[in-house]
């Protein structure tokens, strides 16, 4: 495997990890909003 291929594979993996991270952040953000909204309601 040459360096170019390794780099492309690495970048692809980082990209996928970022994608998962973004999805998790959306879920966390939604959850926090729901908690906040519940706290607002008497």
From TrEMBL:
This is Uncharacterized protein. It comes from Halobacillus halophilus (strain ATCC 35676 / DSM 2266 / JCM 20832 / KCTC 3685 / LMG 17431 / NBRC 102448 / NCIMB 2269) (Sporosarcina halophila).
């Amino acid at each position: 495997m040459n360096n170019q291929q390794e780099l492309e594979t690495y970048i692809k993996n980082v990209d996928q990890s970022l994608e998962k991270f973004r999805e998790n952040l959306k879920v966390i953000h939604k959850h926090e909003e729901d908690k906040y909204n519940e706290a607002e309601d008497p």
